[in-house]
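Obj: model holo form, ligand = fe (ii) ion.
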Amino acid sequence: MNPLASAIAEGEAPGHSPGGPIRVGSEAHKRLFCRTLLDTHNPYKPAVLDWPPLESEARQRLVNLPIWDIAVQTEGRARLNVASYAAMVSDPLLKKAIELDAFEEGRHKHVLSNLVAAYGITLAPEPEYVLRGDVEWAFMVTGYSECIDSFFAFGLFESAKRSGFFPEALVATFEPVMQEEARHILFFVNWAAWHRRTMPLWRRPYFELKVLAVWLFLVWERIGIARDVGHGVQDNNFTVTGAKSVGEDIDVAELIHLCLRENERRMSLYDRRLRRPRLVPALARFARRFMRS
Ligand SMILES: [Fe+2]
Ligand SMILES: [Fe+2]
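Output (holo structure tokens):
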């Protein structure tokens, strides 16, 4: 593994920034966010990941998590959305980075499929993955939804680790997937910032409307779907279902605090000159103000 990738895998690459300042939207910015994704790729093979044997109680807890169908399908859709966008991109470096992103989404699906098989979890039949319509829209839906889901997944994962909900060996096996999602959202927000600066000015208003529409769609998807919780339907709302499953009496303020801390820790490993995902952490900080800790 590349030294930077292994330092990051070990959690030991404290936000180095070896070069001078860079301007968002510049060639140097594009090179930096693409190279960061490419150079920190962890080449693990899903087939050789070791799924530790679990005691029956721990296994049952894992089997009962109501997230497996939607998790596998989300990764399947993410792979398609990202790969389809990569096919449209002409810049060779950007294309290569987005292709790697798509490869990693496919690998997540592989990892999850192996986990599910290893612990005897039964999945609902998968739908056919098809992309109709605007490819950039689909790429942005995947990117921004990862910004929401990963932020909460970081905190939930840490909480499950601390409470012993997941045994240590399982946490270690799954850790690379978590860090990969941190890389993806870092890449995505930098792509979005670069993309809006490099497009012709007349396209900007349309793009901003599209960004807004994607966020509204994601909020609608999460609120709409949250209503189905408890109706036996697995849904996109990882936070609600995940928090309910990981600990009955999880304190929301405490969870938000963990999400913020973990988000910061995971992001701190990368070059400081890159943009960080800001909206979801800012909303979480805002919400925390109204909660008793
Ligand atoms: Fe993924
Ligand atoms: Fe991802």
